[in-house]
Amino acid sequence: MTELLFSTAFTLWGLDTSWLELIAVLLAFAMIVCNIVELHWGWPLAAISSVLYFFLFWSQRLYSGALLQVLFVVLALWGWSVWLRGVEGCPLPVTRMPSHKRLKLAVSGTVLWLATGSVLLNFTDTDVPWWDAFVTAFSLIGQYLLAHKRLENWIVWMSVNIVAAGLFAWKGLWLTTLLYLAFIALSAVGWRTWAKHARVEAE
């Protein structure tokens, strides 16, 4: 089974793309479309895609990104339960965060980025410690915001997707690079879609 998943599905720009990457990309694309339309089935799709990306990233020495996928599986199941539970029997509403909470999250993400990058730099053989760490740190912030239907999650994801697209292009994961380029555009669509009915949370 492992040999089949890592076997070549097709060749893109002279580089082989595995079945593992192809399936993970398709699931991840379906996941973000579900997120935009607030369909809870995006969460289990995210969990399955994360399992596949764990093996793909580990094979590329993207250790932080690989371990992030393990957290994503847990967070996806948690986020799924939050969306299903809602608030007092009603669907969870989309809300905008107060400015002081945005600042706290930005600081938290930066500290997590620096800490993760330092660990990768000193204790692994990765050749992209800071880029890998950035994607990891702010993906966790984005996932937290998404689970709570915070409008700002789309801004965080847009930043993550821009960095991730460059990182995956460097690693020659071209199909995943194309996916993250699409994610940049879809993040903008998600922002505009959610902003139409987002509530402003009280300070």
Layout of strands and helices, then pairs:
Layout: H1 2-6, E1 8-12, E2 15-18, H2 19-36, H3 42-59, H4 63-85, E3 95-96, H5 99-123, H6 129-147, H7 153-170, H8 174-195, E4 199-200
Parallel strand pairs: 3-4
Antiparallel strand pairs: 1-2
Helix pairs in contact: 2-3, 2-8, 3-4, 4-6, 5-6, 6-7, 7-8
Describe this structure in words.
With 203 residues, the chain is mainly alpha-helical. The protein has one domain (2-200). The chain is built from eight helices and four strands; from the N terminus they run H-E-E-H-H-H-E-H-H-H-H-E. The protein has a two-stranded antiparallel ribbon with strand order 1-2. The longest helix is centred in the middle third of the chain and has 25 residues, at 99-123. The radius of gyration is 17 Å and the shape is globular.
Helix content: over 70%
Shape: globular
Biggest sheet strand line-up: 1-2
Instruction: Give the CA-CA distance, first to last residue.
Output: 52 Å
Whole-number total of structural domains? 1
Q: How much β-strand is present in the residues?
A: 5-15%
Order of helices and strands: HEEHHHEHHHHE
Total helical elements: 8
Q: Report the radius of gyration as a whole number of Å.
A: 17 Å
- From the helix content, strand content and strand pairing, which structural class follows? mainly alpha
The biggest beta sheet reads: 2 strands, antiparallel
Give the beta-strand count. Answer: 4
Write a brief structural summary.
With 203 residues, the protein is mostly helical. It has eight helices and four strands; from the N terminus they run αββαααβααααβ.
